[in-house]
Write a structure and sequence with these properties.
By secondary structure, the protein is of the alpha/beta class. Helix content is 43%, strand content 11%. The protein has helices at 18-25, 39-49, 52-59, 66-76, 123-132, 146-153, 168-180, 199-204, 216-219, 222-230, 239-250, 261-272, 285-294, 315-326, 341-349, 359-391, 396-399, and strands at residues 78-80, 95-97, 100-102, 106-108, 136-139, 158-162, 186-189, 277-282, 298-301, 331-335, 354-357, 405-407. The chain has an eight-stranded parallel β-sheet. Strands 1-12 form a two-stranded antiparallel ribbon. Helix 6 links the parallel strand 5 (136-139) and strand 6 (158-162). It is globular and about 70 Å long. The model has no long low-confidence stretch (mean pLDDT 96).
């Protein structure tokens, strides 16, 4: 493509599609593109780079992985109908989420224990998110102090994903630290009071926190430090017990219910001065309606990428149902199974306003750290930008139209199948 395209100066977002040209040109400079970002090949390369524990944790799904399979099958039944001879020369991939104008309707999903993928953990991920002006969401199960992640993210838009303890003082401390560090949206994950049954992790005893790895976010919390002291645990001398005590406060196996949500919303609003509060993990219409009733500012339609309930509804199918019920009443985001620009487009067409991406950047981090994350996400943005121009979309809003898709019945195979992607 023309590197001197005169329309570039009139766009309000970078010409992400130029990343294609940049990679094509590398051979002339005696270089090669960093690695192949086709999802299957990306996954294969990550497997080669990771330790066994890192690979198993990143790739594992609940049970027999049938929810993971369903997530991908749901995308296949929707087909984009491209439009031609549309002036997309001054297209924009930008959108706004909770007051933040961002480069695309794509964010870095919250994923825990990044230090099992790379020694620097969450830091390079947060840095790249800021560079690309995409929202970064930090997990409570993160392996780096909240304050350090914020420093790496600089002026980037950032949200905090909460796994809520049964210790209110600890919850308040986590939320206070997050807001003081510039995380201005709170997203409570509702589907992970305990990890789903993941065969490979269980078979190998693969739980980093119990090995004393990845608990830094908790170990740097003043309230949790008091809890450790009261229990007589020195995290430097006994990192396994300290890590176990932390994660057992986070993935505690003791479900919260709807009666706790008003307190949490009120607490976050008081700490943050009224900033948005969202729920992540919503799959049923009844829960979506209840979320609107209790006053959340948004919901993330997600089945945790198939990692929690095996044999569950595809997240994309849940999105359709939920949008039909409450799409005009709250801000709806999507998560689970995104692998390319066309998937982002399909989720937007089915009613999502924003999409979260997880495994893709995890593979990039695993393969090449900061450079790997940047390569994967710039490739995704280029894919999305090219789709806009060859598919006839001038802006993101034009993708938010059910009529751009031709959809087929839910004819998913009833026999057991597997999907790596």
């Amino acid at each position: 493509m023309d590197a001197d395209n005169p329309n570039r100066k009139n766009r309000d977002t970078p010409q992400w599609a130029l990343y294609q040209r940049e990679n094509f040109w590398k051979i002339n400079n005696g270089e090669k593109p960093l690695f192949n970002t086709e999802p299957g090949k990306l996954e294969d390369l990550a497997k080669q780079k990771l330790t066994e524990g890192g690979w198993l944790y990143a790739s594992s799904n609940a049970g027999s992985s049938y929810t993971h399979l369903a997530n991908r099958q749901a995308f296949y039944r929707h087909k984009i109908i491209p439009r031609q001879l549309v002036d997309t020369n001054v297209r924009t991939s930008s959108t706004t989420i909770f007051g933040h104008k961002v480069s695309a309707p794509i964010g870095f999903a919250p994923i825990g224990i990044n230090k099992i993928y790379h020694p620097l953990g969450e830091l390079p991920v947060a840095k790249v998110a800021k560079e690309l002006n995409l929202p970064y969401c930090l997990s409570t199960a993160g392996s780096t102090a909240i304050e350090d992640v914020a420093a790496a993210n600089g002026a980037g838009p950032r949200f905090y994903q909460l796994y809520m303890p049964h210790d209110d003082e600890l919850t308040v401390s986590l939320l206070t630290r997050a807001f003081k560090s510039g995380f201005d949206v709170c997203i409570l994950t509702t589907d992970t009071w305990q990890l789903g049954w993941r065969h490979d992790d269980v078979a190998e005893g693969n739980y980093a926190f119990y090995r004393g790895i990845g608990a830094d976010l908790g170990l740097t919390d003043p309230v949790f430090q008091k809890r450790l002291a009261a229990a007589g645990i020195d995290p430097k001398k006994d990192p396994q017990r300290a890590g176990a005590m932390w994660i057992d406060n986070v993935w505690h196996g003791r479900a919260h219910d709807w009666s706790k949500i008003p307190w949490l919303i009120k607490t976050w609003k008081e700490i943050s001065g009224g900033k948005p509060f969202c729920l992540k993990g919503i799959q049923s219409v009844a829960d979506a309606k209840k979320a609107v009733e209790v006053g959340v500012d948004g919901i993330v339609v997600s089945n945790h990428a198939g990692r929690q309930v095996d044999g569950a509804i595809a997240s994309l199918d849940a999105l359709e149902n939920i949008v039909a019920a409450v799409g005009d009443k709250t801000y709806i985001m999507y998560d689970s199974g995104i692998r390319g620009g066309s998937d982002v487009c399909k989720a937007l067409a089915l009613g999502a306003k924003f999409v979260w991406v997880g495994r893709l950047w995890v593979w990039g981090l695993s393969i090449m750290g900061e450079a790997g994350v940047r390569h994967v996400m710039k490739s995704l943005l280029a894919d999305f930008d090219i789709l806009m121009t060859v598919g006839g979309f001038q802006n993101v809003e034009q993708m938010m139209d059910r009529d751009i898709l031709e959809s087929y019945p839910k004819g998913y195979a009833m026999i057991a199948e597997k999907s790596r992607l």
